[in-house]
Amino acid sequence: MSAYQALYRKYRPQTFDDVSGQMAVTQTLKTQLTSGRMSHAYLFTGSRGTGKTSCAKILAKAVNCLNPDNGNPCNCCEACKSIDSGACMDVLEIDAASNNGVDNVRDLRDDAIYTPSQVKMRVYIIDEVHMLSISAFNALLKIIEEPPEHLLFILATTELHKVPATILSRCQRFSFRRISQEDIAARLQYVAYQENIDLDDGAARVLARLADGGMRDGLSLLDQCASATTGELTAERVYACLGIAGEQKCGELMGYIASHDTKSALELFNRLYTEGKDLSAMLDEMACLTRDLLVMKTAGNAGITMLSGVASDQEVLALTKALSSAELVRMMNLIQTTLSGFTRSASRRMDAELCIVELCQPELSLDAKALNARLTRLEEKLKNGDFVAAAPAKKQKAVPAPAEEDYDDDRPPMPGDEDAPPMEDEPPRPQPSEAPVGFWPELCGAVRKELKPPISGFFAVSPNAPVQGALVGGTLELRCGNDFIAKMLDKPDVLEVVSRKASAMLSRPVRAVVVDLNAKPAGNPRMEQLMKFGREHSDIVTIRK
């Protein structure tokens, strides 16, 4: 019984027409082969699993094939069979990761001058060429620039930026792009049919998405899932086999986060964790979904073609209405930070749960991004008309006085009691004095320019500012929220500046006084008056902003 061969090795492309998703590269190589305008050195770049090594082997067969077919090797002649079996000594595949020394390149250079013994051209395929040392690259320069006529170099790398410019200038460069999900899914369906695997369309799309543009990764995942289950291979079985949550659960979790339902989000997360789902895979799915939401939020309908496929288009469109762009950026940063910390974390579950809680409750964080996300959410609600102001509170009905027996005989007499002392005549209530529009903001700006910190910082224009102005007749009351600010402002030089600026703006004498709203009435005549007349008299403040 022959040993089992992995699917990605068994179904490696044998001709240029078999290569998926690299039409620009394969068509150019076929044209060069048919026209005889071959270069002496090629450099294949691109991410893993996109066909670089496969195209290098096909090109090595095509230049030595005895019966080429429109640029493709026939795979039937002695040259093609010997190259496929690895018995051809004139076609060498070298791994630069383990042969990266200058001595290895010197040996290669010394052997390259000899004419081939079995085929027409001697071909050197150097994989992961960026792993060569600087000395090895320098030893390779001369022979790549002026090789013998029987010599062909094919270099492959995933990190183009590590290859010296002197090597790049001596090679024809071909960039292998990531293979689309549609091409990967189609290839997986073909392989599944050949291997008698009942592969569902949904499962093929999931595997294609997880492959992330690499055909080899897609075939490896198919091999793993097919060997772990019997019967039809569905998307749910793929999720169970690979230990991922799946698009439905991921979308449900994101829905709880969007509605700030922390309890339901943690319950779902705990259920997925109990079922054995991988925490890194779960957060990676959340990051992909967040990225899709951000793309749809910023690019609109044009972003549909850029979706990763972690959730359906309908789910993405529904979630984009519930989350603002600032919230999505904050969520993406938080998820990425949590993922990067997994490598040095002692408790991944605790980190993931804390991430879920912070995603659901942005108010737990006071950093700029969290505050910006909350403000942006309010702005979008106001813009869309989803925010409705609360109705004004109704006035409470007068509570009937308790029965006579409920009173304490030792209580002090209150106003209105028969034995209460006579009340003094109430002082006349101050009449409102109206100031010009913008008086207080303009006064604050003028005062800040003349006073020095920290006193100048108290004069801010906001509802929560530490100092609020109230113009009552010819007096400008500086109402302070605590005694510290009142003491800081109750100085002759400060009051002189405020009085002078206010008098100049109103064209009449104005005297500035400090009122501590938290002071006891006995120590503050103005507060005694405020307490006596009640809080309703605060309508005296008629400074319009």
Structure commentary:
The structure is a single chain. The protein has 545 residues and is an alpha/beta fold. The chain folds into four domains: 7-176, P-loop containing nucleotide triphosphate hydrolases (Rossmann fold); 181-242, Helicase, Ruva Protein, domain 3; 247-384, Zinc Finger, Delta Prime, domain 3 (Up-down Bundle); 439-540, 2-Layer Sandwich (GMP Synthetase, Chain A, domain 3). It contains 23 helices and eight strands. It has helices at 7-10, 23-35, 52-64, 78-85, 102-112, 134-145, 165-168, 181-194, 201-211, 215-228, 235-242, 247-258, 262-274, 279-299, 313-320, 325-341, 348-360, 368-384, 439-450, 455-458, 483-489, 492-506, 525-533; strands at 41-46, 91-95, 122-127, 151-157, 172-176, 467-472, 475-480, 511-516. The model is unreliable at 404-408 and 533-545 (pLDDT under 50).
How does the SSE layout of this entry go?
Layout: H1 7-10, H2 23-35, E1 41-46, H3 52-64, H4 78-85, E2 91-95, H5 102-112, E3 122-127, H6 134-145, E4 151-157, H7 165-168, E5 172-176, H8 181-194, H9 201-211, H10 215-228, H11 235-242, H12 247-258, H13 262-274, H14 279-299, H15 313-320, H16 325-341, H17 348-360, H18 368-384, H19 439-450, H20 455-458, E6 467-472, E7 475-480, H21 483-489, H22 492-506, E8 511-516, H23 525-533
Parallel strand pairs: 1-4, 1-5, 2-3, 3-4, 7-8
Antiparallel strand pairs: 6-7
